[in-house]
Amino acid sequence: MKITPHLNRIIFSAGIVMLIGGFIDPLEGSLVIILGSILITLSLHLKKDSFSKGFLMASLLIVFGVFFMFYFSSLGGFGGNSQLSWWWGTLILPYPAGWLLSIVLLLVRFLKQKKARS
User: Rounded to two decimals, what is the model's pTM?
Assistant: First the structure.
């Protein structure tokens, strides 16, 4: 199946909406954020955009952090009365770091495109 530029733009826009919309509730919205990040990465990869590798890295960070967030949640959390110390929470940090990286990359990409059009 060949992806048309119009369909690619829809995939990219849907990814942005999911990435930002999932931030309303970062725990339950984490799966929406993962999907949005992957859609943005896929769209830019199909366009052969130079930012696709940065978004791939951000997507991997998000997936890694969300995996451990759900894993620790299944174990009953960490800290407090749990068997796991608070230090295990550092494995969740790639999730917000990847989300923040995605937002920064979106802004930089937007500003570069705006500058190129001028």
Answer: 0.91
